[in-house]
């Protein structure tokens, strides 16, 4: 598996494997520990992670009206990584303000994920690179919202 550009199935298999190792109380890598921590925040996905043979190839389209659980968990992992290295610069402080606002780390992650998803969508729609300034401005708006 390519560390920096895994295929869809490789990324999904990583999550299935981490979940299986967790359930077997096996030793987890640092990345698997983070992934499992996020997966435990989402009990609505546990049955899916218990059935890789059923869900490895499952397609998720917006018109289906359901959240893609793999995308959701992957966005969590992306946001956690961004916060841990403070990239884009300032995201760590904005996340801290959201944690304080909600008194809930998970809700704060979801606000950051919403801003990331919006920024990724804009970049894809406009065929441009991710606009870090736009991303941070969206996030600042979440911090300031009542």
Short description:
Helix content is about 70%, strand content about 0%.
Spell out the key features of this protein.
146 residues, mainly alpha, globular, 2 domains, 0% strand
Q: What structural class is derived from the secondary structure elements? A: mainly alpha
Radius of gyration: 16 Å
Largest sheet: none
Query: What would the principal axes of the Cα set say about the shape?
Result: globular
Q: Please tally the helical runs, counting DSSP H or I stretches of 4 or more residues.
A: 8
Order of helices and strands: HHHHHHHH
Low-confidence stretches: none
The number of distinct structural domains comes to 2
Q: Helicity level, as a percent range?
A: 55-70%
Give the termini separation: 43 Å
Could you give the count of β-strands?
0
**Percent of sequence in beta strands:** under 5%
Mean pLDDT: 93
3D architecture notes:
The chain is an all-alpha fold. The chain folds into 2 domains: 1-67, no CATH class; 86-146, no CATH class. The chain contains 8 helices and no strands. It has helices at residues 8-23, 30-40, 46-49, 52-55, 69-85, 91-102, 105-126, 132-144. Helix 5 (69-85) packs across helix 7 (105-126) and helix 6 (91-102) runs parallel beside helix 8 (132-144). The radius of gyration is 16 Å and the shape is globular.
């Amino acid at each position: 598996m390519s560390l920096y550009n895994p295929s869809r199935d490789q990324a999904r298999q990583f999550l299935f494997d981490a979940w299986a190792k967790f359930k077997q109380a096996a030793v987890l890598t640092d990345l698997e520990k983070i992934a499992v921590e996020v997966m435990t925040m989402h009990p609505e996905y546990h049955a899916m992670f218990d059935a890789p043979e059923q869900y490895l190839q499952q397609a998720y389209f917006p018109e289906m009206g359901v959240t893609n659980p793999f995308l959701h968990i992957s966005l969590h992992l992306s946001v956690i990584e961004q916060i841990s290295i403070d990239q884009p610069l300032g995201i760590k402080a904005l996340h801290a303000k959201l944690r304080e606002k909600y008194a809930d780390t998970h809700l704060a992650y979801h606000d950051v994920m919403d801003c990331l998803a919006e920024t990724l969508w804009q970049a894809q729609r406009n065929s441009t690179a991710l606009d870090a300034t736009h991303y941070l401005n969206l996030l600042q708006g979440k911090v300031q919202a009542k």
